[in-house]
Amino acid sequence: MNGSTARDDSHDHGRSRMMAGPRACLALIIAVLAAGGLAAAALAQEGWFGGRGRVEDAEAEGNSAYDGRFVFVRLRYAASSGGLGFRRGRLAPWAHDYPRADVHFMKILEATTFIAPRIDGSNILALDDPALFAFPVAYMSEPGFWRPSDTEVDGLRAYLTKGGFVIFDDFDGPDLDNLKEQMRRVLPDGRFVELDGSHPIFHSFFDIDAPLEFIPPYGQGQPVFYGMFEDNDPAKRLIAVANFNNDIGEYWEFSDTGLVPIDLSNEAYKLGVNYVVYAMTH
Amino acid sequence: MFESIFQLLFEYRPVVFEQGEFRFDTLPESYATAALGAVVVAVTVATYRRAGTRARRRDRLILATLRLAVLAIVLLCLFRPVLVVKAAVPQQNFLGVLLDDSRSMQIADVRGEPRAAFVQREFGSAERALMKALSDRFVVRAFRFSSTATRLGSAKELTFEGSQTRLGAALESARQELAGLPVAGLVLVSDGADTSEASLTSSLLALKADGLPVFTIGIGRETLPRDIQIDRVTTPRKVLKATSLLVDLVITHTGYAGETITLDVEDGGRIVGSREVKLPADGSPAAVQVRAMAGEAGPRVFRFRVSRQPGELVTENNVREALIGVDDRREKILYFEGEPRFELKFIRRAVADDRNLQLVTLQRTADNKYLRLDVDNPDELVGGFPKTREELFAYRGLILGSIEAGAFTGDQLRMITEFADRRGGGLLMLGGPRTFGEGGYTGTPVADALPVVLERSTGSGQARALARLRVMPTRAGQAHAVTQIAGSESASLERWTELPQVTSVNAVAAVKPGGVVLLNGLDERKRSRPVLAFQRYGRGKTIAFSIQDSWLWQMHASMPVDDPTHENFWRQLLRWLVDAVPGTVEAHTTVDRVEPGEPVAITAEIVDPTFVELNDAQAVAHVTHPDGGSSDVPLEWTGARNGEYRGTFVATGQGSYEVQVEASRAGKPVGATVAHVRAAPGDAEYFDARLDAARLRRIADETGGRFYTPETVGGLPEDLKYAGRGVTTTEQRDLWHMPIVLALLLALTCAEWGYRRATGMA
User: Fold this and answer.
1) Residue B398 and residue B544 in one domain
2) Would residue B426 count as lying in a domain?
3) Are B474 and B408 within one domain?
4) Is residue A7 assigned to a domain?
5) How far is B436 from chain A (nearest CA, A)?
6) Is the bond preceding A234 in cis, omega lying within 30 degrees of 0?
């Protein structure tokens, strides 16, 4: 922001805690329901926690090449061990909620904003993959299990320094220590700071005045939003946001199933939309 | 040489023949002598006829002709041919002698001595031959001249410090000074290096009307054997602080072909730019560009300098100075982006640290939903894109991102066009799925303003025809400041070849006749299309940049983390976008430097916030003098052009003057601006400081005088005497005793004798 003034305007200025204008919410809900129809069938076939085969299929199909459009990028990494799905021998932690969370979120993004993303899938990229640099927003699930190699560390450092933005999601407890430790390898001077509802990232599209009142899917505890700023200067842009004690990807994944309340799914989508719009404008 | 031979053969100077009237001063005895001559001719003819039996016909004919020619010349002389000329009466006529007192007379190019030495030697003492000859015949009135002509008591008073040479003004001053007096003519002693931009024609017309001949004496060499000169420097009058200037220069030289010199740019004694230049062949100007950083705010004198080269006679012309007003203000640019996309993020980031650019961003994120960034107050753009001209014209630049034409009303589309045309702002359209023809702009007023021809959209604004392009500068782009992305022109060209591919979804194929393409994109089939083009449009400029993801030049894996290419490109592009964009009050002086004591003309252009010219504004210029004093100069509407006001003040002392122009209307302020001018002795005397013989010849030829060099000036007194001006008397000059007559007689006689010897008839 550099000390400048930013304003988010919707010409129907309805505001509430975690609520945006009614029109936007309406669009959101409609989109959720629309997305639900497609994803429900997939869920019925593949179960609650997904399956290893889906990830393998996605990687076999390959990522879509950059064509100017926004593509959801899920970061793949070599995990130490564990992870909810991984422990059960079914899914690597980086793939948690894949692919339905990715697809659902892109459909919501398309429905609520003027962003025209790819909605038929996402890209799975490693941090040391040169292709990653064509997609300046990336999502990492379960960073508590993240053990990057030196080349991945270098890749992420270059990515963030050049202008990339990373969303860390789905972690709690000691996972935070691991994230901080790994990020110290990436940016030795980088520090995570807690964000409150006044930060522009919570107002880039929806006005999320009280993000700390977000209810996480598994009751991990009080959610905290950590941010890392460019040059550690809060006046500069955020280069990463971390949803500690939280898992918005979980809401995205099951938003079409009826297993999670729509209101909570909406809040998770709002955070995601705000993150992307912020990353595209800051 | 020619005149010496002429005078040797014809006894008199050419002027006598030019001015004189040919007559025969026949005596009564001449007729008797003529009759005798006729008899001789008859005898001669008869004699040669009788000789017909002994000689060939051709021999007789030649010999008779030679003999008759001799007789004809003798007969002609017997009739006493004369020239009647008007000669000036001694001491009855005035003679104006104008001596060049300018600095260029100090140049020592005449056998190692300065040009001034001739003036002091020949005109400094009444005992010198030339001065004595002139003084004997005329009442001499001496003048010194540089910028003006003033009376001179003695040539010893000359200082040769004049910073200008104005030949026309000097001649006019002398003409008026001597008006009403019997004047034989004017003598102009100079190197002819006129530094004024005024034409000589009007001065010469007055002299011709008075019939006053000017005799010019040219001093110096017509070519300097070894010299380097910075001929021309083209700089903007105003720039934003921290702008990287790309300045065009022309360097001429003699004697240094093939050598490499260093051109430095100084700002306040600090070198802010430098480059090496390899000089072309003698006489061929070298057009070069040099970069310089305008790092300090305020009126800055930039010096462009080539150091003294071995054997160089004149070094003062190795330096050019330019006054550039460096503004440290924030230029507001409105960037309207129709969809969230990374291009916006990276453009904002590229110019985030540029304190002189304020990129006010209106980001449409969804239908009827906007994000405003870098606005000055909560009300700015609260209603979306400006709906009035006053609101829009408050910005100096306008960027249209991926926003379709349908997002604007018809009046807003016209406003956008007028933003460039009438307001003089910079309009930039970026590539994207919702711009150019794909955004439905074809047929709109905005399409008229753009430098490229828009294709009619094939349907949906989202129609995609993705082209992957490698961008390369055109010839114009290689020399343009905005596309310089490395330290030199060649390095910049190479850098462009290394940049990663970018994409475009806009079918922009043709450029309008007035458009200039700076960057072309080559697709994978090597087909070229313009990707950066601009044109002047009304008072402003319009730019089309059809790439949708130049952010890849920052983000791509092949780009080093600290590579500044993307930032530099966008800073340069946005600074160029607002370069020379006028405000509501604009002021300038006719020149950026005057001589101390000269008047300075201030011109102001005043418009209202909608950029309609005002003829009823009250305008005043607050002039701050170098000594800290100030004065107010009222500016009056000229009546010649709408919104144009003028006023004048005199720059009495040497130094920099700040001219702050304020305008109001009906008691309400309209705007204010600042201009600068400096008063300093000019260095123009040392530019083109060779002897300009052509100019001096022209003055002499058009007024009926003659041109001399120090070697031929001896004939000046005689020529002046027979100039036919002033109080004259008639003189008769016999022609029969001219050496050429005798020479002819001898030649003809010898020819006859020689012919006879050759043919055996001696």
Assistant:
1) yes
2) yes
3) yes
4) no
5) 17
6) no
What's the pLDDT at B52? 58
pLDDT band at A90; cut points 50, 70, 90:
low
- Which residue, A159, A263, A151, is CA-closest to A213? A263
Instruction: Say what the pTM is.
Output: 0.81
B17 is a domain residue: no
* The pLDDT of residue A19: 35
Angle between the A150-162 and A175-186 helix axes, to the nearest 10 degrees? Answer: 80
B744 three-class SS: helix
* B534 within a domain of the structure (yes/no): yes
CB contact under 8 A, B561 and A277: no
Judge whether B1 lies within some domain. Answer: no
| pLDDT value, residue B573 | 97
- Asked if A58 contacts A72 with a C-beta cutoff of 8 angstroms, the reply is no
Q: Which residues of chain B have pLDDT under 50?
A: 461-463
What does B578-632 look like in DSSP terms, one character per residue? TTT---SEEEEES-SEE-TT-EEEEEEEEB-TT--B-SS-EEEEEEEPTTS-EEE
Are A115 and B340 inside 8 Å of each other by CB? yes
A15 in any annotated domain: no
Quote the minimal CA–CA distance from A210 to chain B in Å.
20
What element of type H or E holds B360?
Answer: strand B357-366
Domain boundary among B281, B304, B327: B327
> Do the domain assignments include residue A239?
yes
- Closest by Cβ to A280, choosing from B345, B366, B549: B345
Query: Tell me, what CATH number does B636's domain have?
Result: 2.60.40.10
A276/chain B closest Cα distance in angstroms: 9
Q: Which domain holds residue B616?
A: 585-679
Tell me, yes or no, whether B107 and B63 share the same domain: no
**Angle at alpha carbon of residue A135, lines to A129 and A137, rounded to 5°:** 110
Q: Is B444 an 8 Å CB contact of chain A? A: no
Nearest to B466 among A9, A68, A157 (CB): A68
Report the CATH number that the domain containing residue B114 is assigned in CATH: 3.40.50.410
Sequence-distant (≥ 6) Cβ neighbours of residue B125 within 8 angstroms: B131
| Residue B32 buriedness (CB in 10 A; 0-12 / 13-18 / 19+) | exposed
Chains A and B form CB pairs within 8 A to the count of 124
Q: With a CB-CB cutoff of 8 Å, which residues 378-397 of chain B face chain A?
A: 378, 382
Contacts of A10 in chain B (CB under 8 A): 368-370
- Asked if B176 and B202 sit in the same domain, the reply is yes
pLDDT at position B85, please? 87
For A5-51, the pLDDT digits (tens) are: 445 554 333 333 333 443 444 445 544 544 444 444 344 434 444 44
**Taking CB atoms and an 8 Å cutoff, what residues of chain B touch A281?**
340, 344-345, 348, 361, 363, 371, 373
Instruction: Name the domain boundary from B553, B577, B601.
Output: B577
In terms of domains, do B147 and B197 share one?
yes
Instruction: Look at chain B and report how many structural domains it folds into.
Output: 5
Residue B545 is predicted with a pLDDT of 98
The shortest CB-CB distance from B346 to any of A2, A67, A163 is to: A163
Please give the pLDDT value at position A17: 35
- The domain spanning residue A45 has which CATH number? 3.40.50.12140
Tokens read off for B533: 């083009």
User: With a CB-CB cutoff of 8 Å, which residues 514-573 of chain B face chain A?
Assistant: 548-549, 551-552, 554-559, 561
Total domains, chain A: 1
Q: Could you tell me if B521 and B407 lie in one domain? A: yes
Other CB atoms closer than 10 Å to residue B681's CB: what's the count? 15
Chain A residues whose beta carbon lies within 8 Å of the beta carbon of residue B403: none
Closest listed residue to residue A168, CA positions, set A193, A184, A198, A144 = A144
pLDDT at A186 over 90: yes
Regarding whether B336 and B469 lie in a shared domain, the answer is yes
User: Residue A166 sits in which domain range?
Assistant: 22-281
- Judged by CB atoms closer than 8 Å, whether chains meet at B503 and A204 is answered as no
Is A9 a member of any domain? no
**B chain contacts of residue A12, beta-carbon cutoff 8 Å:** 368
